[in-house]
Amino acid sequence: MLVLNRAIPNQRRRMILNQLKAALIGIGGFGKSHTAMISKLASEGIISCAAFCEPNADKFEKERDILQSLGAQHYTDYRDMLKHPDLDFVIIATPIPLHKRMCIDALEQGVPVLLEKPPAVAIEDLDAMIEVQQRIGQPVAVNFQNTSSQSFLQLLQSIREGRIGKVASVVAVGMWKRTQQYYERNNWAGTLRYNGEYVLDGSMCNALSHLWQNSLLAAGAGDPEQAQPQWIEAELYKGHPIESEDTVCAKIRSKNGVLVHMYTTLCNENNDTPYIKVIGDKGELQWNYDQSLRLTDGEGKIHNFEFEKEDLMRNMYMNLIRRIRGEETKLFCDLAACRNFVLTANGAFTSSGLVHPIPEGALDIASDETTVTTAIKGIRELVKEASEKQQLFSETAVQWAVRTQRVDLRDYRQLQLG
Ligand SMILES: NC(=O)c1ccc[n+]([C@@H]2O[C@H](COP(=O)([O-])OP(=O)(O)OC[C@H]3O[C@@H](n4cnc5c(N)ncnc54)[C@H](O)[C@@H]3O)[C@@H](O)[C@H]2O)c1
After folding, report:
1. CA 310 / ligand 1 centre spacing (Å)
2. Are 227 and 274 contained in the same domain?
3. Any idea where the Gfo/Idh/MocA-like oxidoreductase N-terminal domain is (predicted)?
């Protein structure tokens, strides 16, 4: 057993423990969750924290104090921070339009990255990041933490084992409620571009992006090559007074012939549990965001899988840490594994042309002393009907729906906004 001697200098203790030095860029917003995870892993002796970068640290005193108590040095410019002599990996938890530059700069300093999702929103940006990552060879893990759960991995394995026969389609539904307050949380929420960079913030590229990512992984049973999107028809709508979408339905054909139907909205009355159904010729699997998984076999018998509770963010950290230490070869979600998602999202914008505003008469808008809530009238019934029949909204009787174009994605290399 290893007994730690307090007299051993810090650097040597780190080497004995193989304790990696982390640095965090962005400590507010979701960076607060990263601060908590870094603090937890540091208290367990798994990592230490060398540095953090935050231009607005006075706004996040609690996180600043936690990180400084771990001995982390505070920077206000991430490029200065990247010159720190011994960083083992950097976590990037900043606004979406900053991801590409920060990730490439970290890689060019030879530093592995844990990058918040979405890695980028324009396919040309993601491709540039993949090119640098592959050239430099340092790992980039994308924090699509739902890719790491036992339940989701079991879903993929069950598909591969043929437990539902040949997969014909994937249907995913994500219906959440987001108020005006949500759109006021930062200055890029709900925008298409911010400071000249693409953001495409909405149900697809941000709030429910985990559902899109996992659905496209499920379409290929975990093999992105199989799930490459060939074409897409998508309808983008907005109920909130924003630039980007808050409601999307889409039909996607993947390379292996699987048809994917996606329905995501932030204009629901409540937060329903998002789910993905994978439909085969001998049964059906349903994976839910609460990490439950159900198999319905060809005879209609139901089998519920059991899983232990797990911390998905911890999974993502440990996976990258093991990868850096050489104990693991595969990341749960690398940059290349996000390409189908980003391509699909770009195709969805091109297909829809515009983000179509939903007429006020079709909305329930309620105000209280704190915020304004916008819901689409009858959205649950509409999504239920459309998802069961695998239809786009424009193929149902709903008045406000707009028919859109099919877009070929086989040679699509640059985001084209309508
Ligand atoms: N994995 C998840 O479940 C999950 C959940 C929520 C958000 N996110 C992602 O986290 C990322 C951040 O989202 P957010 O809502 O926290 O954003 P945010 O706008 O609140 O910013 C996060 C932090 O980055 C800091 N920041 C801004 N510019 C910076 C710069 N140049 N250098 C250093 N720090 C800078 C901000 O001051 C803030 O502290 C996004 O990619 C978002 O999609 C992921």
Report:
1. 24
2. yes
3. 21-144
Same domain, 258 and 207: yes
Q: Ligand 1 centroid vs 120 CA: distance in angstroms?
A: 13
Q: Is the CB of 257 under 6 A from ligand 1?
A: no
Distance CA 331, CA 119 (A): 15
Q: Which of 126, 145, 164 is the last residue of a domain?
A: 145
Length of the chain: 418
- 120 CB near ligand 1 (under 6 Å): no
Instruction: Decide whether any atom of ligand 1 lies within 6 Å of the 78 Cβ.
Output: yes
Q: Is residue 321 part of a domain?
A: no
Ligand 1 neighbour 116 (Cβ under 6 A): yes
Q: Measuring from atom 37 of ligand 1, which residue has the nearest CA?
A: 56
Non-local CB neighbours of 351 within 8 Å, separated by 6+ positions: 232, 233, 234, 235, 250, 404, 405, 406, 407
User: Taking a C-beta distance cutoff of 8 angstroms, is the pair 14, 88 a contact?
Assistant: no
CA of 190 to the centre of ligand 1 (A): 14
Q: Could you tell me which of 66, 55, 65 has the C-alpha nearest to residue 98?
A: 55
Residues 43, 127 within the same domain: yes
111 and 155 both lie in a single domain = no
Domain of 22? Answer: 10-145
Query: 398 is written with which tokens?
Result: 């709903």
- Residue pair 343/412 in contact (Cβ under 8 Å)? The answer is yes
Beta bridge partners of 173: 263, 275
| Ligand 1 pocket member 82 (CB < 6 A) | no
pLDDT in tens, the chain (418 residues): 334 444 444 554 455 457 999 999 999 999 999 999 999 999 999 999 999 999 999 999 999 999 999 999 999 999 999 999 989 999 999 999 999 999 999 999 999 999 999 999 999 999 999 999 999 999 999 999 999 999 999 999 999 999 999 999 999 999 999 999 999 999 999 999 999 999 999 999 999 999 999 999 999 999 999 999 999 999 999 999 999 999 999 999 999 999 999 999 999 999 999 999 999 999 999 999 999 999 999 999 999 999 999 999 999 999 999 999 999 989 999 999 999 999 999 999 999 998 999 999 999 999 999 999 999 999 999 999 999 999 999 999 999 999 999 999 999 999 999 6
* Run of H or E including 381: helix 379-389
Choosing from 53, 116, 212 the residue with most ligand 1 atoms within 8 A of its CB, the one to mutate for a pocket test is: 116
